[in-house]
Design goal:
Protein name: DUF3857 domain-containing protein
Largest sheet: 8 strands, mixed
Number of domains: 3
InterPro entries: DUF3857, Transglutaminase-like
Pfam family, one: Transglut_core
Keywords: Signal
Strand order of the largest sheet: 6-5-9-2-1-11-16-13
Shape: globular
């Protein structure tokens, strides 16, 4: 009862503190600067003390309605780990005439020095602009004189020629003490506004309406507001003052003490579960014409992308590769072999420049010539080459994991492209941007729920992106005890994603770097005779072998020998440490991990006790674990298997999965006891 009362008192104190603060720019208090930790979330590295997000449509007679967003925030930095919050990166669309503008940047760092508040203002020379790709620019700056204990204030205005309002974040990885969101929308623009359905928290806006009068000047004749809010006029010559009125809807939200997003590990993208306000533009009213409906379907979205000149025209280009591809495929008639040759050719011919997007960045012809391109360049090129050889192939629109999952039909729901081909009655997904993948195997960034395949007639359909097969890792071990230490010989076969991930991490690294990754439990182990085969290929499998010696794996007590038969491969810690789970669990892809371990019983010893055999299974066979150990002549035989057949578990299944891993840790740390004969 005392604990509950204390917690309630802390919450009430925080609310009173928040409500008593002055959040006008420049009004940072000494109390804020003296604060050393967040009272509700003491582990936080920083906290958003106040965030104000104001969205409105500004009207001008020449441009009509344009979107304006003003952001002001005050952030407390508690320790050096929170310094990242002192660097700002504002991303804006900047392509041809369609340009968003960032202006009015004001930023100040406040520090308490000898009892006085010192201010360091951001200078214009400290603001930088970098082009991300053909479409986006980033404005970046880092706050001056940042220290543990600093408070920073940042203010800027984002002006956009586009009508649609971006999603508004309400929750972050640090606590938010107070947030105010104020959105004002003319009734020409009709929105569907709703919270993120995957978030644990949801907040409601208060809505109100107000009549607004516009004053403008026009030539004599009848002026009209068009669908963009521009004033049309007749051919008259006299200027007259006129007024027009419209209804403005206001959406207002004020919240305090929003808890931070907690990254619990094994999450696809933490933003998928972030509290935020989603704004879907459904209609623009034209007072003197037909309203334009923006509510759409996935079929219409994909069709509009496919029919865009930047997409379909690039897909239909063949002249730039025709001669080279014909020579490459000379004498090859088997479609499967052709597909493999084409995939390998594109994968090696054009390297990925790291830029996403389903539209080609510089055009497929230029990418082919330069040997470098974005995702759209490379995979549209791959699709075109496959189609040119009468291999049924379609581009597949994808949202990568760090981009999130699209919740409603919009062309902005995708930012990536892979390819699907059908050969001999089978479908194959592929991505030639990844230097470690092969046909049928996508990189993990692209395995995000489902993609939208666009057929040649413009129709489309959903395609699952997670593999239906399990990736396998099989480890064979022979071990014996010599001179008080284990000598271990290991041969390992990694397949599918296990092999791809290993190549991605270690292809460019030395044997020493690879060996250092083997000792996952920090044992006293020395490695030798390390060898990896097929590291530099993209075959389905790779193998590695090594020897290891360790005196720390065995303990002698009163003449008996104690050791875990899992040796250096034991799972000693449960990776799931939280008491409760807020988000689904993601294990990336279906997988099977097997160990076959043979341990020679030293002469003069016998088995005193063995761990009990164990099996565990989650509902529906979503995951299975088996631990089978036996004495076979002068050897111990151990077979351990962990199969994760369903890589995604809902949060309600967390306790079952955690309990299974606890059982694995308990079992794999149990000891064999050998006694002298």
């Amino acid at each position: 009862m005392k604990i509950k009362s204390l917690t309630l008192l802390m919450v009430l104190s925080c609310v009173l503190f928040v409500n008593g603060q002055n959040y006008k720019p420049g009004k940072v208090s000494k109390e804020e600067l003296k604060q050393t930790q967040d009272p509700l979330f003491p582990d936080a590295d920083a906290a958003i003390l106040y965030r104000e997000y104001i969205v409105k449509y500004d009207y001008s007679q020449s441009k009509g309605f344009e979107l304006s967003t003003t952001v002001f925030e005050r952030i407390k930095i508690y320790n050096p780990e929170g310094f990242d919050w002192g660097t700002k990166r504002i991303k804006t669309y900047n392509y041809n005439a369609d340009r968003e503008q960032v202006g009015g940047i004001k930023a100040v760092t406040y520090n308490l020095v000898d009892g006085s508040i010192e201010k360091d203002k951001l200078k214009t020379a400290q603001i930088f602009e970098e082009r991300i790709n053909n479409y986006y620019v980033a404005t970046t700056f880092t706050m001056p004189n940042l220290k543990a204990g600093s408070v920073i204030e940042v203010e800027y205005i984002l002006e956009s020629p586009f009508s649609s309002i971006d999603d508004i974040d309400l929750q972050y990885t640090i606590p938010v003490k107070k947030i105010v969101v104020d959105v004002k929308v003319p009734d020409f623009f009709v929105y569907k506004q709703y919270p993120n359905p995957q978030a644990a928290l949801a907040y409601t806006f208060a809505e109100s309406d107000k009549n607004i009068e516009l004053k403008f000047r026009e030539q004599s004749g009848l002026g009209t507001l068009n669908r963009n809010g521009n004033i049309g006029s007749s051919d008259g010559r006299q200027l007259k003052d006129r007024t027009a009125s419209y209804q403005e809807r206001r959406y207002l939200l004020e919240e305090v003490n929003i808890p931070p997003l907690k990254n619990q590990g094994y999450v696809d993208n933490i933003r998928n579960y972030q509290a935020r306000s989603i704004w879907e533009l459904s209609l623009i009213k034209n007072p003197n014409g037909i309203p334009k409906n923006y509510s759409t379907s996935w079929e219409a979205v994909t069709k509009s992308i496919y029919e865009n000149d930047k997409f379909v025209n690039q897909l239909n280009k063949e002249d730039y590769y025709k001669d080279e591809l014909s020579a490459l495929l000379s004498g090859v008639s088997d479609p499967m072999e052709k597909m493999g040759i084409i995939y390998n050719f594109v994968q090696k011919k054009v390297s990925w420049n790291g830029s996403y997007g389903y539209f080609p960045e510089n055009g497929v012809k230029q990418a082919y010539k330069a040997g470098q391109g974005n995702v759209g360049d490379i995979n549209i090129m791959l699709t075109s080459m496959l189609q040119s050889q009468n291999i049924p192939a379609t581009p597949v629109l994808v949202s990568v994991k760090n981009y999130g999952v699209p919740l409603f039909p919009t062309r902005y729901g995708f930012n990536y492209l892979v390819v699907k081909a059908n050969v001999s009655g089978k479908s194959f997904l592929m991505d030639a941007t990844d230097p470690y993948s092969y046909i049928g195997l996508l990189p993990e960034r692209a395995m995000n729920w489902q993609g939208r395949a666009i057929n040649r007639d413009g129709t489309s359909n959903w395609v699952p992106l997670y593999p239906s097969f399990a990736s396998n890792a099989l480890t064979y071990v022979q071990a014996e005890i010599k001179d008080g230490a284990f000598e271990i010989k290991t041969r390992e076969r990694l397949s599918q994603h296990y092999a791809r991930d290993y190549r991605s991490e270690f292809r460019a690294k030395s044997n020493e770097s690879q060996m250092s990754s083997l000792d996952k439990n920090g044992e006293d182990v020395s490695f030798s005779e390390f060898d990896v085969k097929d590291l530099d290929t993209n075959k389905e499998h790779l193998t590695r072998s090594f020897k290891a010696t360790s005196p720390s794996l065995i303990e002698e007590i009163n003449g008996d020998l104690y050791f875990s038969p899992m040796l250096i491969f034991a799972q000693k810690e449960n990776p799931l440490k939280d008491d409760n789970r807020l988000y689904p669990l993601f294990f990336d892809y279906p997988k099977s991990r097997k160990y076959n371990i043979t341990i020679k019983i030293p002469e003069g010893y016998k088995v005193n006790s063995l761990p009990e055999q164990s099996k565990a299974q989650l509902a529906g066979g979503a995951a299975e674990y088996s631990y089978l150990i036996s004495e076979a002549g002068s050897n111990l035989q151990l077979a351990v298997t962990l199969d994760i057949n369903n890589p995604i578990f809902v949060a309600d299944d967390y306790q079952y999965v955690k309990a299974m891993f606890s059982q694995i840790v308990e079992k794999e740390t149990e000891k064999v006891v050998l006694s002298k004969i």
